[in-house]
Prior knowledge:
Elements: E1 4-11, H1 14-28, E2 33-37, H2 42-48, H3 54-63, E3 65-70, H4 76-81, H5 97-105, E4 109-115, E5 126-127, E6 133-134, E7 139-145, E8 155-157, H6 161-168, H7 171-177, E9 186-188, H8 194-211, E10 215-220, H9 228-243, E11 248-253, H10 254-263, E12 270-273, H11 275-288, E13 296-300, E14 307-311, H12 330-342, H13 346-362, H14 387-397
Parallel strand pairs: 1-2, 1-3, 3-14, 7-12, 10-11, 10-12
Antiparallel strand pairs: 4-7, 4-13, 5-6, 8-9, 13-14
Helix pairs in contact: 1-12, 1-14, 8-9, 10-11, 12-13, 13-14
Amino acid sequence: MSKRTIVAMPGDGIGKAVLEECIRVLDAAGFKANYVQGDIGWEFWCKEGNPLPDRTLKLLEEHKIGLFGAITSKPKDKAAAELVPELQGKGIQYYSPIVGMRQFFDLDICMRPCRTFKGNPLNFVRRGKDNKIEEPEVDVMIFRQNTEGLYGGVEWTNPSDKVYDALMSHPKFVDNFSWCPRPELAVSTRIFTKKYVTRIVRAAFEYAKKRGFEKITVCEKPNVIRETSGMMLKVAQEMSKAEYPNIWVEDVNIDAMMMWLTKNPENYNVIVAGNMFGDIVSDAFAGLIGGLGFATSAQFNPENGIAVFEPTHGSAPKYANYDVSIVNPIAMILSAVMMLEHIGENEIAERIRKATAEVVAEGKVRAYDMMKLKGSPEVINNGAASTKQMADAIIAKL
Ligand code: NAI
Ligand code: MG
C-alpha cells in the first residue's frame, strides 16, 4: 500500500493535543501516511498577518486531504492589537481561516454525524411508557450546505443607493421596512443556488441509498422562507421522483425539528439543510450523543476532491496550557474515522470506531466531560482520564 500524505493542521489551543493523540491512534491502527504540517490559526495571524498562509492552501491543493484540530478567533480590535509591531497600523484585516478555507476551496458539502455510543453517560435519555427511562439510539447524518445562505456574507448596514433601490422594488420591503432610516437598516441575505442545493441534496440521497434508509428529511422552513427553503424542498422532491424512487422526502420545519429531536431522535437518519439551519440542527443532535467531546464533521468539494475533517469543538483556550491535557480526543479521532471512510480505508475506520465504542461501553476510562466534572487540572486526581490516556485506551482495544 502506498503512503498517503495528510495535511495535519493542529491550529491553536487544544487543537494541538487532540490532533497529536489522533495521529497516534491512526498509526497504531496501521494507517500508513505521511503527515505534513499545515500552518493555520492565531499564531500565524499574529506573526504574519494571515491566519491561513498561502503555503497551507498549496499543501491542501497538492495533497487534497486535511485533518484539522481547532483554531482561536478573536474580535477585530483584539486581533489588530495582537499583531507583531511591524504589521500594526497597516490596515490588515483578520478573517476566520475556517471560513476562508471553505470559500477558497468551495468546500460546499458538510457532513455531521451524530451516532450514539452505547454506555456513554452523556447520552440522551427520556421518560417513556410506565415511567420507564429510555435511551433511544441516535444515528443521524446531517448534510449541511456549507458555503451559501445566511453565512454567504452578502450583507450591508446602511446600504448604498443601488442596494436600497433594489430593496424598494419589493412590495414587502416598501410595506414593512421603508419607514426605517437607512443608516439604521441592516440586511443579511440568504442566497441559495440550484447548483449547490442540488449537490447537497444529492449527497444526502447517496448516503441514504448506501445505508439503506427509506427517507431523507429536508429541515428548512418552506412555508415561510418560500424562495430558498422552497428551492431545497423542490429539488429534493424532484430528485426523489427522477432518481431515487425508493427514498421519499420528508419535510420538517427547523423549529418543529428542534422539538421532535428531543422527543423521537431515533426517527431521523438523514437530514439535509441550508447553512444556518444545518448548523443549528447538527449542534442540537450533537447534544444528544455527548456534545463537543463527540461531535465531528467533514467538509469537502466533490469536484476538486479537497476534503477537511475536524471536530466541532473550538480551541478551548482555558484548557490549552495544562501540564497534562484533559480534553476528550474522541471527537478528533472520529473525524479521522470520517477521513478514512472518505478515502476508502473502511477497514481501518471500522476498527478505530469499534475500539472507541468498546472503550466508551466499558466505562473504565473516561475523560472529564464524560464524568460530568467541571474542567480543571484536578479532574485527573478525581479519576478522569487525560487526553493521552483516552487515546491509549483506544489503542489498546485496536
Ligand atoms: P470551545 O469549543 O473551544 O470550548 C467550549 C467548551 O467546551 C470548553 O470550555 C470545554 O468545556 C468544552 N470542550 C470543548 N472541546 C472539548 C473536548 N475536546 N473535550 C472536552 N470538553 C471540550 O468553544 P469556545 O469556548 O466558544 O471558543 C474558544 C475558541 O475556539 C474561540 O476562539 C472560538 O472562536 C474558537 N472556535 C473554533 C472553532 C473551530 O476551530 N472549528 C469552533 C468553535 C470555536
Ligand atoms: Mg455550530
